[in-house]
Amino acid sequence: MIVNVPKNVGFLDSFAYFCSRSMAGIYIHIPFCKSRCIYCGFYSTTSLEWRQRYVDALCLECRLRRNELSEPIHTIYIGGGTPSQLTTAQLHQLFDSLLANYPLPALHGAADEGLEITIEVNPDDVTSDFADALASLPVNRVSMGVQTFDDARLSFLHRRHTVAQVSQAVSRLRSAGIANISIDLMYGFPNETLADWRHDIDSALALGVEHISAYCLTIEEGTPLWRLKTKDERLSFPDEELERQMYELLIDRLAAAGYEHYEISNFARPSRRSRHNAGYWHDTPYIGLGAAAHSYDGRSRSWNVSDIRQYVEAINEGNRPCDGEQLDADTHYNDRIATALRTSDGLDLDSLSEVHRHYCLQEARRFLADGLLMLRGQRLVLTRRGLFVSDYVMSSLMRV
Prior knowledge:
The chain is 39% helix and 20% strand. The radius of gyration is 21 Å and the shape is globular. By secondary structure, the chain is α/β, with parallel strands linked by helices. A hairpin with a 3-residue loop joins strand 11 (294-296) and strand 12 (300-304). The strands form three sheets. It has a nine-stranded mixed sheet with strand order 8-9-7-6-5-4-3-2-10, with helices on both faces.
């Protein structure tokens, strides 16, 4: 589906006017990677020669869609792919376009603390020059894909960086003035032991970062990892019991170190939750720019085409190459179950319609009795025991 976007839209330049209204986020997808990791199912390309044409199209999409969000922007997240594969000039071009087209405070100079502005990076891309370049941008949060502190497992994943480059990258970011750093970790590698995972957790804690996201390695159909597992029966992945022990170890070690477990896979120092991701979990509207990026306005969701050539050509013609769907009441309810219940804040029952509130409480009775869910005021929250069977609990509360 091609959407024709009106061009005669006004520029909303009064940020203060919107501060009393609900907030929104912007996600920008940068699909470029120098090489592909074997587990990744996100849309990406190694055709780096498209970078400038793609950034030009992103800036044009900013202008074409500048009227879609009436709420003030409170988070910007530049993800991928590998955004650190863009040049400093291209990143400046992108931020100039954001400032010109969305209700944002001035972004030049020091990053505004009222906004959370995140960029994903690879450790090996964080040279001293790149860290200094980030300091010249309005970025105040960096998310870095570390995955593991074992060089052999990094090689297995086809990651480009080494363990030594992780601490170097953190040190360079700190020296450049980045005070909010998040890292991603993975567990559940072939032949990984509980002791191996404890070493990774302790190595992550030694970095002193503000935020840690940790995920069990999943095998998505169509990825190189899926093909490798299909061909090589010698690959022995941890069983469910070992994965449970790894998750429990993660929760306990990070809690002891002062991290708040605020979402199933996310842990933060006080006041350092990911505000952008929290928007996804708490039904906040957002706009997605770039190939394969998703958008949500509270009533419908849409997604751009997952093809860089089609994306660039359509945007250059003044169109948005996308598909989408309107959300009926049950679908919206199911989405709320699948997102809000992931968080320590839980699901606000008062935010549901009377019909869905009654249905939810009816279905939740057995899980409340079994100690998998609890009521905290008018919020339905997973207990620690419930975290381990969260998919089952959430699917059981949905309307089908």
